[in-house]
Design a protein that fits this description.
The structure holds 2 protein chains of 2 kinds. By secondary structure, chain A is an all-beta fold. Chain A is 0% helix and 58% strand. Chain A is globular. Classes of the chains: A mainly beta, B mainly beta.
């Protein structure tokens, strides 16, 4: 089955800085890679996803990059804001990474 | 339309009792997933349904856990002889398609059932 590893587990940045979260996966047959954001006390919600036929996708301040050869994908958040503070999860098939707690300090 | 719903929202039970958790997916979603999330922890996969069958139930932690889905819609997760370590939030999610084929497979999560085993 699929195994997903996510790093770092916690990340603290100053408002306006960039944040990068990385995930690796094990199953080369995986072909869809979403990122979810979970705010405190709320359910996870999709913020961006990428399919295996592209290497990068952007949506305003967030972007995801995929390296299928190396089996890793990353979430990039630019110009971070305090409301970006949350736990972020990557996923491949039914498996989720352990999560990254992002804190953006004003 | 309505999102994923789960019931009950909270369940407190005594050790050794059986509990049943219910999930109503978004209408028309063929795939349904159960996850468990302990306080401050990640999303632990339990089981995945495609229609009424479960192609992946590798995440069920023990034979005390079982799940079924009927009519390609509602799913119930049953925990028999509950233990204190079963205490967690149980999240259900559904998606329009399953995990194969590379289609966009966004999961929509329910609000969860908070289970407390005393």
């Amino acid at each position: 089955g699929e195994n997903v590893e996510q790093h770092p587990s916690t990340l603290s940045v100053q408002e306006g800085d960039s944040a990068v979260i990385k995930c690796t996966y094990s199953d080369s047959a995986s072909n869809y890679f979403p990122w979810y954001k979970q705010e405190l006390g709320k359910r996870p919600q999709l913020i961006i996803d990428i399919r295996s036929n592209v290497g990068e996708k952007k949506d305003q301040r967030i972007a995801v990059t995929l390296n299928k050869t190396a089996k890793h994908f990353s979430l990039h958040i630019t110009e971070t804001q305090p409301e970006d503070s949350a736990v972020y999860f990557c996923a491949a098939k039914v498996r989720f990474g352990a999560g990254t707690r992002l804190t953006v300090k004003p | 339309g309505a999102g994923v719903s789960q019931s009950p929202s909270n369940k407190v039970t005594e050790k050794g009792k059986d509990v049943e958790l219910r999930c109503d997916p978004i209408s028309g979603h063929t795939a349904l997933y159960w996850y468990r999330q302990s306080l401050g922890q990640g999303l632990e996969f339990l089981i995945y349904f495609q229609g009424n069958s479960a192609p992946d139930k590798s995440g069920l932690p023990s034979d005390r856990f079982s799940a079924e889905r009927t009519g390609g819609s509602v799913s119930t997760l049953t925990i028999q002889r509950t233990q204190q370590e079963d205490s967690a939030v149980y999240l259900c999610a559904s998606s329009r398609t399953g995990t194969s084929g590379g289609a966009r497979n966004e999961q929509f999560f329910g609000p969860g059932t908070r289970l407390t085993v005393l």
